[in-house]
C-alpha cells in the first residue's frame, strides 16, 4: 500500500459485551461461575470494503474586464445565461448549482467575475456538459476538472457495513471451527474493534506513485480511482461453545 495514500478518518472504537438482565450481585456471581464452566472460542477477523465516489463538483468561472460597469456585466451575464440554459437542457436542477458574483474596480477599470459551482450525480452528464462548455465558449470562461467525492450518507453506510462484514466473517470462521469438533456455536460474549483504517485511493497503488503524478491524472477513470475510499476493519469476537445434546433412542 502506498505510503502517500491519504488516511483521513479516525472513528471511535466499537466494544460490546453481552450480559443478562439480573441484579448486579447475582449477575457478578453468576458470571464468575459461568466463566469457570463456559467454553468459548475467540476469533480475530477483518473485512475490507471499497466505495467509488457518487458525486462530482465542477467550477465554471466567467470573467471580464472593461471600463464600464454595464459593459462588463453584459459581457459576463451573456455567457452565464448560456451556461444556465445548458444546465437546464441537461435537466440539472436549480438546487444542484450555486452562483457567486464579484465586482471589483482598479482605477477606471471594472473587473466582474461570476462563478457557478455545479454538483453532478451522473458522471457521464458531467463529462458532456464540461466538454460542451469548453467547446462553445471562449477563453473568458474556465471550466475546472471535476472533483469527485462521496455523499455523507453513502460514506457513513460504508463504515457501518465494514464493521458488520468483519463480525460476519468472524462468526463464519467460528462456526466452521466448532462444527469440526461436533459442537454448537452459541451467542457472542464479546465484540471488540481491534483496528480501523480508512484510505483514499487505490489500495494496490504502486508505492512509487508520487503526489504530482496523482494530481496530473487526466482521465475520468484515474480521478474516480483516486477518490475511491477503502475501509479496513479488524474485530475480535468471542462466542460461547455449546455441546450437542445426546439423544438416546428407546429400545423396542
TrEMBL record:
The keyword Nucleus applies. Its main location: cytoplasm. InterPro entries: IRAK1BP1, SIMPL/DUF541. It is found in: Cytoplasm; Nucleus. Residues 23-39 have a biased composition (Basic and acidic residues). GO terms for cellular component: cytoplasm; nucleus. Residues 20-39 are annotated as: Disordered. Pfam families: SIMPL. Keywords: Cytoplasm, Nucleus. GO terms for biological process: immune response; positive regulation of canonical NF-kappaB signal transduction. Belongs to the IRAK1BP1 family. This is Interleukin-1 receptor-associated kinase 1-binding protein 1 homolog. It comes from Nematostella vectensis (Starlet sea anemone).
Amino acid at each position: 500500500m502506498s505510503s502517500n495514500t491519504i488516511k483521513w478518518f479516525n472513528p471511535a472504537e466499537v466494544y460490546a459485551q453481552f450480559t443478562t438482565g439480573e441484579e448486579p450481585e447475582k449477575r457478578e456471581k453468576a458470571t464468575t461461575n459461568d466463566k469457570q464452566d463456559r467454553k468459548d472460542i475467540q476469533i480475530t477477523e477483518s473485512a475490507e470494503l471499497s466505495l467509488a465516489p457518487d458525486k462530482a463538483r465542477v467550477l465554471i468561472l466567467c470573467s471580464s474586464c472593461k471600463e464600464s460597469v454595464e459593459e462588463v456585466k453584459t459581457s459576463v451575464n451573456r455567457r452565464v445565461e448560456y451556461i444556465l440554459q445548458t444546465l437546464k437542457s441537461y435537466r440539472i436542477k436549480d438546487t444542484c448549482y450555486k452562483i457567486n458574483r464579484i465586482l471589483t474596480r482598479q482605477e477606471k477599470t471594472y473587473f466582474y467575475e461570476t462563478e457557478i459551482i455545479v454538483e453532478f450525480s451522473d458522471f457521464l452528464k458531467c463529462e458532456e456538459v464540461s466538454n460542451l462548455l469548453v467547446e462553445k465558449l471562449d477563453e473568458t470562461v474556465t471550466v475546472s476538472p471535476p472533483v469527485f467525492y462521496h455523499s455523507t450518507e453513502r460514506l457513513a453506510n460504508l463504515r457501518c457495513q465494514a464493521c458488520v462484514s468483519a463480525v460476519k466473517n468472524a462468526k463464519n470462521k467460528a462456526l466452521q471451527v466448532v462444527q469440526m469438533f461436533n459442537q454448537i456455536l452459541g451467542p457472542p460474549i464479546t465484540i471488540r474493534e481491534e483496528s480501523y483504517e480508512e484510505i483514499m485511493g487505490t489500495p494496490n497503488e504502486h508505492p512509487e506513485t508520487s503526489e504530482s503524478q496523482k494530481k496530473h491524472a487526466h482521465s475520468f477513470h484515474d480521478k474516480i480511482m483516486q477518490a475511491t475510499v477503502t475501509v479496513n476493519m479488524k474485530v475480535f469476537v468471542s462466542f460461547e461453545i455449546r455441546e450437542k445434546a445426546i439423544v438416546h433412542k428407546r429400545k423396542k
